[in-house]
Design a protein that fits this description.
The structure holds 2 protein chains of 2 kinds. Chain A is mainly alpha-helical. Chain A has 7 helices and no strands. Chain A folds into 2 domains: 80 residues, NADH-ubiquinone/plastoquinone oxidoreductase chain 6, subunit NuoJ (Four Helix Bundle (Hemerythrin (Met), subunit A), Up-down Bundle); 42 residues. In chain A, helix 1 runs antiparallel to helix 2. The longest helix of chain A has 29 residues. The model of chain A has no long low-confidence stretch (mean pLDDT 84). The chains are: A mainly alpha, B mainly alpha.
Chain lengths: 168, 100
């Protein structure tokens, strides 16, 4: 019962954060509402019993990605024109497209019926099971991911060098 | 409405909001954050289906998606900073010379 209430609460929080991202003007406020959405999603994952994913959501998304984003916003000039006028010329087609998409979604969900119920916290997915399976069966994927991260580091250094060349 | 339906609907609405933000907003950093919102919506659906199937493989996939998203941001933000330094603005209207 409490799990169910928490699920609805976090779902409402995630939705409110998503809507606020469209409406708010300053990028820092948008970043804060995105952080709120991500924390709500972490709450949903924890309520569902997928604690591993909830921890990763907080550590990787909120802890790393969004802190990086907030630093980037702080580095930039706040008097930019895109900070004062928020919408592009595609406002009306964009809103119409959004309404159409949500309408299609409601139609499909009503037609297809339930996608299968999941009780909050029914099958707790523990870190132990995840880590044993991860390093036994999916070690190759893990190594490939580390290659990807290495490529990202090399690319970031290349961009940094391009920046220096552009200045000089 | 059961929980699965609620969460899949929430994921799709987050995706739609992120896409609308990508089309509507002018600021490049805000557009980048809207892309993150779209990715979060998709991840939510993935987690719901993984939980239904009680599948470890799907959870590993979610973890790998997180890592790829972190790598994407690590590249995208320096590119945006480079563009902002080059054009002196974050307004997407100033980048029309990127058209082919």
């Amino acid at each position: 019962m409490i799990g169910q209430a928490l699920l609805w609460f976090f779902a409402a929080g995630a939705l409110a954060g998503g809507v606020a991202m469209l409406v708010l003007r300053h990028p820092m406020h948008v970043a804060l509402s995105l952080i709120g959405t991500m924390l709500s999603l972490a709450g949903i994952y924890a309520a569902l019993g997928v604690h591993v994913v909830a921890v990763f959501q907080v550590l990787i998304y909120v802890g790393a990605v969004m802190v990086f984003m907030v630093y980037a916003i702080m580095l930039l000039d706040v008097r930019d024109t895109s900070f004062t006028s928020r919408y592009s010329g595609l406002l009306i087609p964009g809103v119409a497209g959004l309404a159409l998409f949500i309408g299609a979604l409601v139609y499909v969900l009503r037609r297809e019926g339930p996608v299968g119920d999941i009780a909050p916290g029914a099958t707790a997915f523990r870190v132990e099971r995840f880590s044993v399976d991860f390093l036994h069966e999916y070690w190759l994927h893990f190594e490939l991911t580390s290659v990807l991260l290495l490529a990202a580091v090399v690319a970031a250094i290349a961009i940094l060098k391009a920046k220096r060349r552009g200045d000089g | 409405m059961d929980n699965g339906q609620l969460l899949v609907a929430l994921g799709a609405v987050l995706f739609a909001l992120g896409f609308a933000g990508l089309v509507l907003r002018r600021n490049v950093l805000v557009m980048l954050m809207c892309m993150e919102l779209m990715l979060n919506g998709v991840t939510l659906c993935l987690v719901v289906f993984a939980q239904q199937a009680a599948s470890t493989a799907a959870t590993v996939l979610v973890f790998l998606v997180f890592v790829v998203a972190a790598a994407e941001i690590a590249i995208a933000v320096p590119i945006v900073l480079l563009l902002a330094r080059h054009k002196h603005t974050l307004d997407l209207g100033a980048y029309t010379d990127l058209k082919g």
